[in-house]
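Example record

The entry below shows one chain as it appears in the dataset: sequence first, then structure tokens.
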Amino acid sequence: MQNTANAAGTDGPELVDTAPLVEDLYPALAELREAGPVHRIAGTDGRPAWLVTRYEDVRRLFADPRLALDKRHAAPGNYSGFSLPPALDTNLLNMDPPDHTRVRRLVVKAFTPGRVEKLREPVRRVAEELLDAIEPDGRADLLAAYAGQLPIIVICDLLGVPQRDRRDFRAWSDALITPDPARPGAAKEAVGSMLRFYTELIAKKRAEPADDLLSDLIRVRDDEAGDGGGDGSGDGRLSEDELTSLAFLILLAGYENTVHLIANSVLTLLDHPTALQELRADPSGLAAAFDELARYEGPASLGIRRFPLEDIEIGGVTIPAGETVLLSAASAHRDPAHFKDPDEFNPHLGRSGHLALGRGIHYCLGAPLARMELETALAALLRRFPGLRLDVPRERLRWRPTIRARGLISLPVAW
């Protein structure tokens, strides 16, 4: 992998060309990992960032309090992630303690294993209905018709989003996560549409609360506001921007990551027919297979960008305070220094320590829901379609053109 000219015009080593990370992710990461633990690359907006590639470094830094998420700690000219208005950006992915601790505590009870388990049967019914709809055709783009439908239905039901308001969400999400170079204004338009959507939805829920997570969060916000303003500055308070941002984060993260977790897992099993047959014969093995599926082909190429609060040394490289650090979970998961035969998929090895769900205080809030959705989606699919197979040559499958996430553009299958 070659260095490129430092187009950003900042001091420091030249930026590594990130095109191979899109075109051939794992061999490109292996080359970087072998060459060194830290590399300077162009972030998804072209501005510089430091990519950390080795498992022990990535794991340690996921929980290192010297690395902040709050963009206020970013030095000028560095990659800082999405450009969002405060009403969407005041979320857990841009917060450090104590605000992170306060806001997370308000929503964590919605995703406890016990509460999520109560959703298993409703999720199973949704999966069966989606499969009923496509079964007579004998073929489908499984990403669009199944993997892309199930998570949005589940998370919208949890939040209380009316059915009529769900149709545009995937287009907005795609525009934000994978911007189209031919439509440079699409991401900005999507952000505006999302902001209007969440603002209007919260207003409706305030007027007519229901038995759903968003109504619960609004109740928490408004009860606290009545006691002291609810500006988010006090212990236990939730500001209006934090409320809107929470709804945005729960819906976007609950949809986007799970879509690709399901689709990537289906592809992995199709690539490994012995494992597929074993799990079809004994679906109880899906719970244990989750961790290997998430490690082998998880939806997150990178962790959330971070900013050192002080100059920090990583693998012998000193990274100045305020510069952007990207922790590559995808690279860590294929590091032979930690995982034996990391490029092989083997759900029987019981490999522990994957980082697909994060680590430390930023461990994925919706992890129990993601596990349950994947197990339920795969169990229904494998049972209903015993002849499931790819409907195009394997080499024709394409991955989304971004280093931010690992997801297919489509997954044509037949049965």
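Notes for this example: The radius of gyration is 21 Å. The first strand starts at residue 3 and ends at 4.
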